[in-house]
Design goal:
Layout lengths: L6 H12 L3 H14 L7 H24 L17 E5 L6 H8 L17 E7 L2 E7 L10 H8 L3 E7 L5 H14 L3 E3 L7 E9 L6 H12 L5 E3 L8 H12 L1 E6 L7 E9 L4 H8 L1 H6 L2 E5 L7 E3 L10 E5 L1
Parallel strand pairs: 1-3, 1-4, 4-6, 5-6, 6-7, 8-12
Antiparallel strand pairs: 2-3, 8-9, 10-11, 10-12
């Protein structure tokens, strides 16, 4: 089958051959990938472009490290907010567009793969807290570096993004999970076993042509392995539901405090693990409370207002706590 290369591709190929820096080479290769026709006649050419992109990135990182710069292994995003969730998926799945739709971040959104080259965090508002969502480079043979999987392992959860506009979404998703597994990153439901990172499968671009049929296939293959939610960053479908599911994924609770005779401070809740007791919460408020705590009063679900509770009482999301020393 003839390649039928476009003039835009040929121009990008010319610029690649004349490039003198890794940045120029990578920009030209990315445009080549974006403009090359996608059919069986170009499969080997596309694979070759991906190999060249990976080689350029590796050589650039090696030179930067040798010069004393901060290479990819130095990537780190300090956790903020109620918890840290990673966006994980194959190239062009729609992760960056989701981050932009959900948060205050401004990622690069491009029609070509590998536009995301470094971790980019954004804060997603949910009721009175914020959840940190981090966009990562796509998981593919070209980007499967140790630092990437280390960041995923250290997070509180993951959104695994599949592209409902892509006929090959199952192949891309399977490769992502295979590469992650090879680097000791196991994604699944909470409670699936030790070392499994709680994850939610996001079926992105539900507004795309043919998305309904691909969604049913995705649900049939992966519905038992992951909780699944279909969304659209373009028209906002299920984005509010996604915020709620992100909160549930963290498996944490909000606790509010009040002083005797005053209203509860609802501006800045303490975010604590589910199963937290009054004693645990007292330690989070101030370490001195732990030894001096005599009892607490609580306002919340399952109790009457102002009920006296002991140190071992397990708290629920939204409880208001009045500590007595």
């Amino acid at each position: 089958m003839p390649a039928n290369l476009t003039p835009q591709y040929l121009e990008a190929d010319r610029r690649y051959r004349q490039a003198t820096t890794p940045e120029e080479q990578l920009a030209a290769l990315e445009e080549m990938m974006a403009t090359i026709p996608k059919h069986k006649g170009t499969e080997h050419m596309r694979a070759d472009i991906r190999r060249r992109m990976a080689k350029v990135r590796t050589e650039a990182a090696r030179k930067k490290a040798a010069a004393g710069g901060k290479g990819p292994t130095g990537h780190h995003v300090p956790p903020e907010g109620a918890g840290q969730i990673m966006l994980v998926g194959p190239p062009n799945a729609g992760k960056s567009r989701l981050l932009a739709a959900l948060s205050n971040a401004s990622p690069v959104i491009a029609p070509y793969p590998f536009a995301t080259r470094a971790p980019l965090p954004g804060m997603v508002p949910f009721e009175d807290v914020k959840i940190q969502l981090v966009d990562l480079p796509p998981i593919a043979p070209e980007t499967a570096e140790p630092w990437l999987f280390s960041m995923i392992r250290q997070s509180d959860g993951a959104l695994l993004v599949a592209d409902l506009s892509d006929d090959d979404l199952l192949a891309g998703l399977e490769q992502t999970l295979e590469l992650a597994g090879q680097s000791r990153v196991r994604l699944g439901r909470r409670g699936d076993g030790e070392g499994v990172l709680p994850s939610l499968l996001i079926a992105a671009k539900v507004d795309a042509p043919g998305a309904a049929e691909r969604l049913e296939i995705l649900r049939e293959i992966y519905g038992n392995r992951f909780p699944l939610l279909s969304v659209s960053a373009e028209d906002g479908t299920n984005l509010d539901v996604l915020r709620t599911e992100m909160w549930r994924l963290l498996d944490v609770i909000r606790i509010y405090t009040k002083a005797r005779g005053q209203r509860a401070d609802k501006s800045a809740p303490f975010v604590l693990p589910r199963g937290t007791t009054v004693q645990n919460a007292a330690a989070a408020v101030h370490k001195d409370f732990v030894e001096r705590l005599k009892y607490a009063r609580i306002w919340g679900a399952g109790t009457f207002d102002g009920q006296m509770v002991q140190r071992e009482h397990v708290l629920a999301d939204g409880d208001v706590l009045e500590l007595h020393a």
